[in-house]
Specification:
9 strands; alpha/beta; globular; three-stranded mixed beta sheet
């Protein structure tokens, strides 16, 4: 359980997240993931990183229960900073990152895949930001990298999800495969990337990041300010306390 790194093939690092039952990461889990991604990118033998997950879904965001147990703001601040570091670690990884998405990809999961260089998804994968139903805000920055602007807004305001097939139609998902074939398909794409010169692929990653029209780090940090405001106002606690109870705030 936790975050692990393996080397399934030459030039490829596989970073796997495993936090049962739904891969809702605690504060330390986000930092561990950031550390693993940065370490993999620094390895001179690695030319591509695959980010995957074990279990029912790719990522369910932050551990809401950890926040509910906290009587102050330590868990919120920790989650904000941890997510920021993990999302940035994907984006700033020195080599391309391929996200292998199975099942649900929600909340913080969108932050991870939105900053990835390529996405391979299983045919049961769904993507969305249920933030407004969780007393939070954030990761619209990253959802906007996956779908057109107006669809991003509608998905955000309604907390609805989009399927892997829909994202494939928008061009943000590279390939959709049966769940049993997901890991293999992601590794196949990673292997094609890993055939490139290691120095040159690092230059390519830095160059492409440099021409991005939006500074994803600053944009996401701006969003986080509203998350904290929602908590200070008390509305976040009121909405968050309905989590898992089938109630509306």
């Amino acid at each position: 359980m936790g975050v692990s790194t393996s080397s399934p093939d030459k030039g490829i690092a596989l970073v796997t997240v495993d936090f049962p039952p739904v891969n809702a990461l605690p504060v330390q889990g986000w930092y561990d993931l950031a550390d693993a991604l940065r370490a993999a990118g620094r390895d001179p033998e690695v030319r591509c990183v695959v980010l995957g997950a074990e279990g029912r879904g790719f990522n369910a965001g932050v551990d809401i229960k950890e926040m509910q147990r906290d009587t102050g703001h330590a868990a919120l601040i920790g989650a904000n900073r941890g997510c920021y570091e993990a999302f940035a670690a994907v984006y700033e990884c020195e080599v391309p990152v391929v996200a292998a998405v199975n099942g649900f990809c929600l909340g913080g999961g969108i932050g991870l895949v939105g900053n990835a260089d390529a996405i391979v998804a299983s045919d049961d994968a769904t993507f969305g930001l249920p933030e407004l139903d969780r007393g939070a805000l954030g990761a619209a920055t990253h959802l906007a990298r996956l779908v057109p602007q107006h669809l991003m807004r509608a998905l955000y305001y309604t907390s609805r999800t989009a399927t892997a097939a829909e994202l494939h139609a928008h061009g943000s998902v590279w390939k959709v495969v049966p769940r049993a074939e997901l890991r293999g398909a992601a590794l196949e794409l990673a292997a094609e990337i890993a055939k490139k010169d290691g120095y040159l692929i690092r230059l390519a990653k830095a160059a492409i990041n440099g021409i991005d029209p939006v500074d994803v780090r600053r944009s996401y940090r701006f969003e986080q300010g509203f998350t904290f405001e929602a908590n200070l106002s008390g509305v976040a606690d009121r909405v968050r306390d309905t989590f898992g109870k089938g109630e509306r705030a």
